[in-house]
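We were asked to recover a plausible sequence for a given structure. The inputs and outputs are reproduced exactly as logged, with field labels preserved.

PROBLEM: sequence recovery
POSITIONS: 254
GIVEN STRUCTURE:
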């Protein structure tokens, strides 16, 4: 590092589990770029100060993760089209002093899903569990790629309904409470967990009971730590094709 080294990073709370610093610093070293990437644990009430601090220190940009992807939006100068439609930001770039919010989650997820499973999204009847920041990016990308039908099941039904309203111009979408998802499982071809249920350190929980999982479908989990969540372990036992969040993580970061 020299006086020319510029700052990049990721803001979240908690953040200790993140592998972003390893991935980005490895890429920066490989490409011999004059940046360093750090992890910042920013509690929600300190987000405005953290954003102002990064700006004042001349950071080139940073990633944004749980729980700041939505709450950071009013703190930025401009929001790119996809991030505006999704309603969440996962990347901030500082361009000529202007803070621009982007969302690369959906495109990263789609690339990973297609590369690893070969699925044709246009033929899929999809259950998305969760309606948070990551769900918005993934659901938008799937709907925009022509998914046949999408059901969004979420603990807080109003959040699923909000997401449904965003997607309904793109495809047929239904919003249900998490407890009602069972009745929508029989004709699904792709199940995507976008909640944090099953993420380290609480790895012994799953967003649905094993016996609810349809046999032989594709089950995808955005979590990459652990590499095989309880949901994916149980799906594998039931003969499903499984897909984890590592590829999405790599592609959204790249
Ligand atoms: P978020 O905006 O906080 O949303 C969390 C979602 O999970 C909400 O739908 C929330 O429901 C639901 N949820 C949380 N705890 C729950 C529980 N105990 N039971 C049922 N539902 C629960 O978080 P996010 O940014 O979308 O991230 C979600 C997950 O995706 C995390 O595990 C994160 O690591 C992963 N992710 C992976 C990548 C990748 O590159 N692979 C990228 C982004 C995120 P409510 O609406 O009811 O609160």
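RECOVERED SEQUENCE:
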């Amino acid at each position: 590092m020299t006086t020319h080294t510029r700052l990049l990073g990721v803001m979240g709370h908690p953040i200790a589990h993140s592998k972003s610093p390893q991935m980005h610093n490895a890429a920066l070293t490989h490409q011999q770029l004059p940046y360093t990437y750090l992890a910042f644990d920013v509690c929600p009430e300190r987000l405005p100060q953290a954003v102002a601090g990064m700006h004042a220190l001349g950071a080139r940009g940073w990633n944004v993760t749980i729980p700041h992807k939505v709450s950071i939006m009013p703190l930025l100068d401009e929001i790119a089209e996809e991030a505006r439609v999704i309603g969440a930001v996962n990347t901030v770039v500082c361009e000529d002093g202007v803070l621009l919010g982007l969302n690369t989650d959906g495109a990263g997820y789609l690339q990973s899903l297609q590369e690893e499973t070969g699925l044709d999204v246009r033929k899929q009847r999809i259950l998305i569990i969760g309606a948070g920041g990551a769900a918005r990016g993934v659901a938008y990308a799937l709907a925009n790629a022509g998914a046949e039908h999408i059901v969004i099941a979420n603990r807080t039904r109003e959040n699923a309904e909000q997401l449904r309203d965003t997607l309904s111009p793109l495809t047929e979408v239904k919003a249900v409470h998490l407890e009602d998802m069972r009745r929508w499982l029989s004709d699904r071809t792709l199940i995507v967990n976008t909640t944090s249920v099953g993420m380290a350190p609480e790895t012994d929980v799953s967003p649905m009971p094993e016996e609810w999982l349809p046999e032989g479908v594709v089950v995808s989990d955005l979590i990459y730590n652990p590499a095989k969540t309880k949901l994916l372990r149980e799906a594998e036992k039931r003969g499903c094709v499984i897909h984890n969040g590592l590829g999405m993580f790599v592609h959204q970061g790249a």
